[in-house]
Amino acid sequence: MKKVLAINSGSSSFKYKLFTFPNEEVIASGIADRVGLKNAVFKIKLANGREYINNTHIPDQEAAVNLLIKSLKQYHVIDSLTELAGIGHRVVNGGEIFKDSTIIDQAKLQQIYDLADLAPLHNIPEANGIKAFMQILPNVPQVAVFDTSFHQTLDPVHYLYSIPYSYYEDYGIRKYGAHGTSVDYVVKRAAKLMGINHNIINLIVCHLGSGASITAVKGGKSYDTSMGFSPLAGVTMGTRSGDLDPTVVQRLMDKAGMSIDEVINVLNHKSGVLGISGVSSDMRDLIESKEKNAKLARRIFINRVVRYIGAYIAELGHIDGIVFTAGVGEHDPGIRAGVMSAFKYIGLEPDYKANQTDGEKFLSKPNSKVKALIVPTNEELMIARDVMRLTRQQ
């Protein structure tokens, strides 16, 4: 039996899950949080449900990795590092260089760093995480799994912007998409639940979390997607504006005296439902809030999701289903109901009673021509599967 670690690194944290193969069971999971900051914490949860929390100083990613390996041994999750078939790392943007997951060497690691301008908030901490694991576990394969890989099937009609073509050739300005690892899992799982071969299924996947994207899936492959050159594009999000007339940036620079970096910071961190509501980026807070713009923010969020789904229905010609996943998609019945209600005209018959609870399920009535369902995402499992595929351990 082989074991695979799946890692999701942030600027001051990394989440992890340890799987066994071929049964794909999670035998440990947790987080190293506030790495390099005060009040750092390391958590590990075992298969028996026991959780251990260590409040300790974690100065850097390398220290966090050492603490993880020590904990896995301490709690007898692994006895030897030879049990590890590999370690998989989520990387947000692989540009046009990485069309599939790949085993990382020093040259490929540098390429991930070089792509940082496409995802500056993500690629650098993710590359730092890979580097730390490579230093501590040099004999264990490190595999990068890119969110953009699933969207490599986009046609130029869908990924090019209507600007001089030379900007694409010279600077790589195009739509790259995001959340591909999540969408890939959701498509395959939804197809199984619906009894349709995933290679012929047409779906619209709504990955709705703090970051949100809508993906049109044709024949099991990405056909179009809402996020663009960066994760800032597309629908309204928790703190991101989504699609915006670019002259708004010029207006803010001229009238508010802001620099381009300040404007982009606002669009990334102070906009979205937070900016509209003035209350929170969390949908749960908006439900409880009595502020007049809290409900407006939720209505705008639903509207932007509906717009993209409607456009993608037109592009695909027909769809088999609409799938909700990620934090908001899996846990906010009000958002789901608002979206589903807009598509009764295509034969979607919402089951509003089923919609009141969470968990993997159908949200449409049995005779509904177009299905709606919740599929909880599992990016870590997809990462672990790619490790097994690339290290030929299956």
From TrEMBL:
A Pfam entry, by short name: Acetate_kinase
Residues forming the catalytic site: D147
UniProt GO MF annotations: acetate kinase activity
Cofactor: Mg(2+); Mn(2+)
Family annotation (PROSITE patterns): ACETATE_KINASE_1, ACETATE_KINASE_2
Broad enzyme group: transferase
Residues annotated for substrate binding in this entry: R90
Recorded family membership: Belongs to the acetokinase family.
Name the UniProt record assigns to this protein: Acetate kinase
Natural source organism: Lactobacillus colini
Gene name, Swiss-Prot/TrEMBL: ackA
